[in-house]
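Example 4.3 (complexes with small molecules)
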Amino acid sequence: MNTQTLLTGQILTFSGDPFAQAWEDCIHIDSVGAVLVEGQRIVAVGKAEILKAAHPQAKVVSYGSDLICPGFVDAHSHYPQTAMIASWGKQLIDWLNTYTFPEEARFDDLTYAQDIAARYLDLTAANGTTTIASFATIHPHSVDALFEAAQARGQSVVTGKTCMDRNAPDDLRDTAQSAYDDSKALIERWHGTGRAHYAITPRFSPTSTPEQLSALGALWAENPTCLMQTHLSEQPDEIEWVKSLYPQARDYLDTYEEHGLLGDRGLYGHSIHLTPREIDRLAEMQGRVIHCPTSNAFIGSGALNLPELAKRGIPLGLATDTGGGSSFSMLRTMAAAYEAAQHHGHALHAAQLMWLATAGSARSLHLDHEIGSLTAGNYADIAILDLNSTQAIAQRANRSGSVWEDVFATVMLGDDRAVRATWIAGACVTA
Ligand code: GUN
Ligand code: ZN
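Answer. The structure with guanine bound is encoded below.
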């Protein structure tokens, strides 16, 4: 029998969606709780005293009054942009041409791709992130590099070869046919192997011809368990550009739909400036909107009205969008999501933010049956948060009467210093 480990502390659990019902009815913190881990999985969650008595042989790891929560799930990022995060002074199209494409061209070198993949997984684990949905580059081996690095850590990753056959530099362009062939070969090599999940990845409509979008739509129809990730309605200039490139499309979302790229396994990053028709259609099709609030602020894209989309029943995920996003931290990302909603007159509760960064993102990736909540049977992907990690947070937390005020202080003021430990598939990876 595997050794069992009992993690004790304050335990965050969910019994529903806090955007569909009152958060108090579906999000709970047990101040004297425990999570029992065996092998890669959680086998029980409950009161510390009861689990200790029932499993006297389990090794106890006491986290005192730290918050034990599901590991964070970052539903949209670009691991190849790790080394150029925080690049100054540009908005989307200029930012891509000036900083992003030259950096992504460096991934022609497999060793560079492997180095950055390992660096990225270290940085995200230090921030409590246990699952990532990341774009790779145009190079198929950039997908191998991330899946291999993740597999060595027992980690769940969603990624795919970024496809671009126009409006990109020569060394970053494929073709409709090679994008189809290379993506198909990667699906056969990786999809469903261990914890690897493939996402068919057209970067966005401006960098694909209609022929390439059609080829990728066909590939998705042939491989319906794959995810599909792309960008949608991020900046006004980009939307105008899409209109000029696809004059017959009803709107930006339609450029995907008319090529077979709209579905409930579709992940649409940003989706800020949607028309009422696009919102209706996403709601109808259950397309996933992935909120990237630090990126939306950093490259000047705008503030998503997330509560409005939630009200329409659109499934939502939360993401850093590294390196358009300005942080690897999902805590910083939750803070930015709070601030973006304030622009629309909504105050998200800390419980809603924590849910979005874990169970909400997991649901957006169709992985909520195995990650995103502390539930028996799920992988033991866990983040431990110190709720007094800095002087600024401790002095704020000490004033508060409720644990939720403490959690909110850590969400708004916290960073990797708040992450005491990260567990992936039952092993502590940050010790
Ligand atoms: N749109 C197309 N590519 C990108 C990218 O790499 N980052 C962001 N933020 N938006 C994009
Ligand atoms: Zn992105």
